[in-house]
Design brief:
Strand order of the largest sheet: 1-3-8-9-10
Largest sheet: 5 strands, mixed
Structural class: alpha+beta
Number of helices: 2
Shape: globular
CATH class: Alpha Beta
CATH topology: 60s Ribosomal Protein L30, Chain: A
Strand content: 25-35%
Length: 161
């Protein structure tokens, strides 16, 4: 009997980003509510990245490198390029931005996150190739670095984008 190695799981917590070029790695962001996870995969460089954004904007006071989409999006894309990915080749997919809370008349953080992500990518000449944004359900996502599959799981469904 031969033992097989378990895949390496790298977790992007709130405000964090993870990267890998190991085809056996899986990049994961757990429990997305109004947060947005942005996955990037370059099929030529065989490198993937996953960022877990919390809010559309905020102060840059030493918080996580991708806590805020404004500012954090550039941090993520630059770090991806430093690992050999090219913006013209990357496949971008996102999930999250759910409406989880109705506080103070509805802050619509999820909606604002989705809009800020789309606008930020457009400003850089990029766009999502797939997304699972909005709704009211929390999600967990994973990017399979070996083949670029992006899997979105909620309480009742599992979908590949």
């Amino acid at each position: 009997m031969t033992a097989t190695a378990a895949p390496t799981v790298l977790v992007a917590s709130i405000g964090e980003m993870v990267f890998s070029s190991d085809p056996d790695s899986c990049l994961v962001a757990y429990g997305l509510g109004s947060c947005v996870a942005l996955a990037a995969w370059d099929p030529s460089a065989r490198v993937g990245g996953l960022a877990h954004f919390m809010l559309p904007s905020g102060p840059s006071n030493g918080s996580g490198p991708v806590k805020f989409i404004e500012g954090g999006l550039d941090n993520f894309l630059k770090a991806l390029e430093a690992r050999g990915a090219q913006p013209s080749r990357i496949i971008l997919k996102a999930a999250g931005a759910a409406s989880m809370l109705a506080i103070g008349g509805g802050l619509a953080i999820g909606t604002r996150n989705a809009e800020k992500m789309q606008a930020g990518l457009a400003e850089r000449g990029l766009r999502l190739t797939a997304g699972a944004l909005g709704g009211t359900a929390g999600r967990t996502v994973q990017l399979e670095v070996g083949d670029g599959r992006f899997i979105v799981k909620s309480l009742s469904t599992t979908t590949e984008l």
